[in-house]
Amino acid sequence: MSGLVKLTIDGRAVEVPAGTLLINAAKMAGIEIPAFCYYEGLSLQAACRMCLVEIEKSPKLVTSCTMPVAEGMVVHTNTPQVAEARKSMLEFILTNHPLDCPVCDKGGECELQDLTFRYGVDVSRFTEFKYHVPEKQWSPIVYFDKPRCILCYRCVRICKEGMGVGALGVVNRGVVSEITPNHGDHLECDECGMCIDICPVGALTSGIYRYKTRPWEMKHVGTACAHCADGCTTTLGVYDNRIIRGSNQDRSGVNGEFLCVKGRYAFDFVSHEERLRTPLIKKDGRFEEVSWSEALRAVAKQFQEIRACGGKLGVIGSTRTTNEENLYLQELARRGLGTNHIDHRRSGDVAALLAAVGGRAEALARTEDLYQRQAAVVIGADLAQQHPLLAFQLRANWRHHQARVYVVTRGPVREDSYAALSVRAEPGRELAALEGLRETLKNEPELVILFGDSVRGEAVYRLVEFGASLGIPVKYVCLVDHSNSRGAMDMGLMPDFLPGYRPVQEAGLEPGLTLPAMLDAPDLDALWIVGANPLRNRELAAAGAFLVVQDLFLTETAQRANVVLPAAGAYEKTGTVTNTCGELIGVKRAVSTMGAKTDLDIFRNLAVMMGIEIAPPAPAEVYSNMSQRGIAAAPGLTHAGLMDPANDTLFTSGTLGRYSKTLNSLKEAPGELYRWNS
Amino acid sequence: MSGMLYNEPSPLEVKVLTRRFGLESPVRIDTYLATGGYQAFQKALKMKPEEIIEEVKASNLRGRGGAGFPTGMKWGFVPRHSPKPKYIVANGDEGEPGTCKDRLLMENDPHQLLEGMMIAAVAVGAQAGYIYIRGEFRKCLEAVEQAIGEARERGYLGKNILGSGFDFDMFTRTGAGSYECGEESALLESLEGKRGVPRIRPPFPAVVGAFGCPTVLNNVETFCAVPHIINDGGAAFALLGTPRNGGTRLFCLSGHINRPGVYELPMGFNLLRMIEEVGGGIRGGKKLKAVIPGGSSCPVLKAEECDIAMDFDTLAKAKSMLGSGGVIVMDEDTCMVKAAMRILSFYAHESCGWCVPCREGTTWLKKLLLRFHAGEGSRGDIDLIAEVARNMLGRTFCPLGDAAAMPAMAFVEKFRDEFEAHAEGEPCPFEPSPREVLAR
After folding, report:
1. Are B146 and B24 within 8 A, CB to CB?
2. B317 plus B352 within the same structural domain
3. Residue B203, preceding bond cis, omega within 30 degrees?
4. Are residues B325 and B341 in the same domain?
5. A126 and A210 belong to one structural domain
């Protein structure tokens, strides 16, 4: 099917691509055809019968969600017959619907309310008893209220088709048909909540948000998710300075409507009772609460003294702080504190990739490429667990465009179920396995290669050579683990690179100590750790070093600090982060902090106290240092030995995950989800 | 295994499909072969596929499952040069209340069904056939499986059948108790082992049917007519009936008549004559009140409408349907509100729940009618019943919604006086009051 088809909808001449469904053709022409069961991107259902329209020469009303456009078709969507049909469908739906709208979570943003308001009637002729069954809880997160369900099957389809999980089905028939978990009374799934947000009514509600407020009482703040590196935008619902909901129903950001359990529900670390709210100073082996000025003065004094006597000062940055903060921190460390011992925890060899592709921006894939390119290879990563959005994109690409996905992993992954080919290979041996796919990949028109931390250093160069030898356009994604792991590198939190991957030698500096080297250096005088927990299960070689830690919680690292500075979380600040595909994602403050300060504020206060003048970075400054812009990284010190990925799964998220009660309530989730990489 | 017959034949019958009924061991292939069996198939093997389809078109054979779609035309829709395998599926999920003919055909002459399907297979080039049998029909299943086994043994099924180079085999599948699975696309879902809900059409089964492949799907009785069409010629079969309604039909007479049963009569047989002469008249000498002419989904006919030829077109003109041949006769003591209630209770129970108007509408109608019959209805409810049914009509996903809506509308329209007699707290005039029951 190709070319354009001309048809008339409500007297308007419309020209749309052949094969377009009538409901979408009308949408393109600005005409709304209401529907519950039709959902773009999912299989067709034609069950709600709301989208019936009149087509000339057709004896009956036709469902516009199943009818492809045809040349010369004349369609009417606003005749009395159509209006009457819509009205009667709503009347049917409402016969067994409980009308408990005043206490329903969905009230105010319910599609059934909206369409009843627009197309329904104000009188109910149904005077029989309504069918009722009690509400059920399927998991800590998912609740199901059967009477509200209108059986549009969106939840069943998004779970099976969109997520590849298939946790939901339907039992019984007729009016007692009921959506139900396929494992009986409980869900065995990702707990992503896609089913809840896709529900047009209040049948599926979340244990996190239910009965907390009314939708119109919340402030909605779209911001980057604080967890993995995929850079989803989550729209936080804020009520009374508390985050009570995460969703992305406005489809903003690179993720569209997609969110996983972390983006949707794991915002509760923000209000965890163990959040640090006051600076702490260790006196005689015990922490004492002190004022911000006292704490900052103590830190500034120590740092200045060490600098004055030429002492050794190390700085470890965070994989979750914003680009602006990272840029400021490296400037403060290098220029203000005069140290080049700055690093962070690495989880992917981005520097090697950038050097290997030699600054060709077109060789770096963006999130949308995973949905659009015709083939992809996943190397050494359990995407569904570690990069839920990228997994969703690839799966949708396979569903909608029949993209071929190849998998080279150590163990079974969910992508196997639809992969064109799956190959098992131990870490470090993936490239040899990939060689076996050469002839197959050569026949693909184009390719996206995603690789995890097991492809590092020299192997990245060989991978890119392999890609180049295929003779087809190839794009790459170097997978990293946390919300701004990529940005930490882009913004120069590395001992050998300045922002934008410029070698430190350009600034007349010698490469400083790496993170492991700092921890191992016996002569370190001070260590400043920002939003990281490197001492979780190891000792600091320089036992007497002055240790400053700024974090949300009193982590294992913070417990050993001399000074602890309470920091604001990702949902309490504004700025940008960079996702694993190198896209800039906006961070917007949703709630204000109590006691804690943003990392940028802490940096600036310290700078002021030390008499160092550094202006906060302008947005353009961040942008100009982003690797997505095609900056050629100089092949320098190999980072291969530095990889220490967090290996988070769907229900873990580093320190933040440990302080998310929601994620912890799901830890006992079934075994299928925890596999070879956890 | 012997055959199963449930009524004495009538001298008025024209026995074509039922001509082996009552023979000794009718299920055995020897009996079948001794009475001309599998000759039509052998003839078909020598014919060109188009010739077979032309013969079926000439016979004016129309689908016996209820819709009456011309069979030859349906076969013609199967793409000739599809790279996919093709299938033949027989719909033996007989579930329409009032209809009980396919069961007899399968129990008493299963080879006839097999032969009809084999001829269809030759006509469209299919490799395999499935007979989907209603789950409750254990005897049918046994008979059909025995017949398939025998046919395989004698080389009528399998590879290179009778040295012709034609391969074809057959299998049985059973339903699990759902009326909806008699709808062709839901049947295919069930056949594939899935939940029995209908599919979006188009594409129709002729193009995308079983397992996504082109499929000929016909009612058991339809296939059973095919050997006779090939043997005697389409024209001869057509002549048995009326114009555009070829052949004979198995009518299932039930209700308040003296000799209920299944009778094979020519298409176009007069309904009153059928009741009086074939069925032996109304039980107990009562007067006729109404007839449902083709199974529960067909709009009811009042007594004065019953002087009518029983074929698809005439009944359509009378705003009813020939349906699947289930003639339900009701005498003067029958409460029409109760009849409607019983029918709608059936459809509410059998609605698959896929689409809104059928799922909610059938249940609403059932509740309304239950309440109404119990004397708790108002005059306004009468119009509401008709209105709810009208809102379902033509708007449901599959024909089940129409099958429920049409009879509901007809009952209200034709027997409004009886509905009025129940309204506003009046007890059912046709049922004894509690006092009368106690007095007995």
Report:
1. no
2. no
3. yes
4. no
5. yes
Domain check: are A23 and A161 in the same one? no
Residues A496 and A612 both lie in one domain: yes
CATH number for B322: 3.10.20.600
For residue B320, what are the domain limits?
Answer: 248-331
Q: Is A623 on the interface with B (CB under 8 A)?
A: no
Residues of A whose CB is below 8 A from B406: none
Distance in angstroms (rounded) separating the CA atoms of residues A447 and A581: 15
Interface test with B, best of A92, A111, A125 (most B CBs within 10 A): A92
Give residue A107's domain range.
99-217
CB contacts, 8 Å: A85 with chain B: 391, 395
Q: Does A150 touch chain B (CB under 8 A)?
A: yes
Confidence tier at A166 by pLDDT (50, 70, 90): very high
Q: What is the pLDDT, as a whole number, of residue A629?
A: 58
Cβ contact B59:B238 at 8 Å: yes
Which residues of chain B make contact with A93, given a CB cutoff of 8 A? Answer: 356, 360
Contact residues, chain B, for A66 at CB < 8 Å: 200
Structure tokens at A515: 């993170």
Q: Is there a single domain that holds both residue A497 and residue A448?
A: no
**CA-nearest residue of chain B to A85?**
B391
Q: Are residues A444 and A496 in the same domain?
A: no
What would the mean pLDDT of B213-229 be, rounded to a whole number?
A: 97
Alpha carbon distances (Å) from A191 to A97, A138, A143, A660, B324: 26, 10, 11, 14, 49
Contact A177 B359 (CB under 8 A): yes
Short-list A546, A519, A494, CA closest to A311 = A546
Please tell me which residue of chain A has the smallest CA distance to B351.
A174
Residues A480 and A644: their CA atoms lie apart, in Å, by 10
Residue B375 and residue B298 share a domain: no
Question: Each residue of B387-429: pLDDT tens digit?
Answer: 999 999 999 999 999 999 999 999 999 999 999 999 888 888 8
The mean of the pLDDT values for chain A is: 93
**A47, A61, A128 member nearest B394 (Cβ):** A61
The residue out of A163, A188, A217 marking a domain boundary is: A217
Q: Which residue does chain B place closest to A89, by CA atoms?
A: B357
Q: Is residue A253 part of a domain?
A: no
- Let me know if residue A68 belongs to a domain: yes
* Res. A176: pLDDT tops 70: yes
Residue B405 Cα, gap to closest chain A Cα (Å): 14
Q: Which residues of B touch A126 (CB under 8 A)?
A: 364
Beta-sheet strand order (sheet of A219-224): A219-224, A233-239, A242-247
Asked if B364's CB is within 8 angstroms of A92's CB, the reply is yes
Domain count, chain A: 4
Q: Which residue among A48, A66, A175 places its CB closest to the CB of B348?
A: A175
Same domain, A61 and A13: yes
Can you tell me the ipTM of this complex?
0.94
B435 part of a folded domain: no
Question: Using CA atoms, how far apart are residues B55 and B75, in angstroms rounded to an integer?
Answer: 11
pLDDT digits (tens, 9 = 90+) for A531-586: 999 999 899 999 999 999 999 999 999 999 999 999 999 999 999 999 999 999 99
Helix (H), strand (E), coil (C) string for B365-407? HHHHHHHHHHHHCCHHHHHHHHHHHHHHCCCCCCHHHHHHHHH
Q: How far apart are CA B398 and CA A631, in angstroms?
A: 60
Tell me the pTM: 0.93
DSSP H helical segments within A443-512, as ranges? 458-469, 485-490
Question: Do A151 and B362 count as a contact with CB atoms less than 8 A apart?
Answer: no
Provide mean pLDDT across the span A488-494: 94
A123 at interface of B, judged by CB pairs closer than 8 A: no
- Nearest-CA distance A30 → chain B (Å): 25
Which residues of chain B neighbour A60 with C-beta distances below 8 Å? 394-395
> What Rg do the C-alpha atoms of chain A give, in angstroms?
28
